[in-house]
Amino acid sequence: MDLSSMILQISFIVMYSEMMAYGFIGQEERKCKYLRVDKLLKIRCYDMNLKEVPPYLKTSVEVLDLSFNRIKKLKRSSFQPYKNIKFLLLYENMIQSVEPGSFSYLTSLQEIDLSNNALMTIPLEIFQLPALRNLYVDSNDLMYLPSDLEALERPIQAPLEYLNIADCGLQDLPDLGILPRLWHINASLNPLMDLSIERFALMCNLKSVDLTRSELTPCQCQQVNNHLRVVEVKTKFVPVCLETLDGSKCPLPYNYTINSMDFLACKNSVKLAKKRSMWLFVTGCAGGILSVLLIMWLCIHRRRKKSVKKLRASALQRRSLVISPKNAINKRDHQLNYNNHNNDLLSCDTA
Which residue ranges run through the membrane (predicted)? Predict the structure, then answer.
């Protein structure tokens, strides 16, 4: 291969990559990839310069990756065809607005990643999705979230377990009501200068928290650490307090956290959830056992029915072969009459 042909090939590759980067190659040449991940149908439309959610995908998709595109707005009809989505990746787009009802069809959604977009709030309907466990909205300037949360219906329906609100310019943790299943919250890279210690009373099942690079006051730092140690939460990513304040300057937080009505209500919700899950487990086991017993009874009943049919059939066969005494006498008389008649005919012929 000569030098000129090599230069042409390299130039073509460079031009092709540039055309892909700036979107000059149409979607028909850059198709989404279909694959199976843990038996889930995944469609990967990663970095395709898309400006909207494509409406031509397979409707049975369960994992949809639309990250690194140029989507600016989510419409009410964006996800209407894809009601089976369980995991939705929308990070690194340009999403600025979300029409009401955009996520209302996603009743099976378990995880959504909206990080690194241009959102100024979180759509409140997200908090009412009945299966949502993991929510990522980090690296968005959520300046309108505190005021929008005033209209939030509490308690929320989403069983949130993991919440990432890092680097969102927040002055306080969002008030989402009681979160009995939440075990981790990442609120790092936020100022949190107005942090309310009461927010932690709503997270009674917390196991770890990330508050690194926040701007807590000395009293806030002390109160947060005291509360987290009492409830045995990992404080690895919590700022270390540089000074210890006495009770007159910084009161203990327990009246606002573990001794508050919100904390008790949260704990009661956890107990009710455990009882409900135990009851569902017991009823499920009982239903399974009853189903097995019913199937066994049906099998035994069918076998008995078949055996009874066979016995009846064999009995009928035996009955046709058995000759009763009365029938035997009648048959003998009939045979004698028949023989006498034949003898009479023979006598007549002889005469």
Answer: 278-300
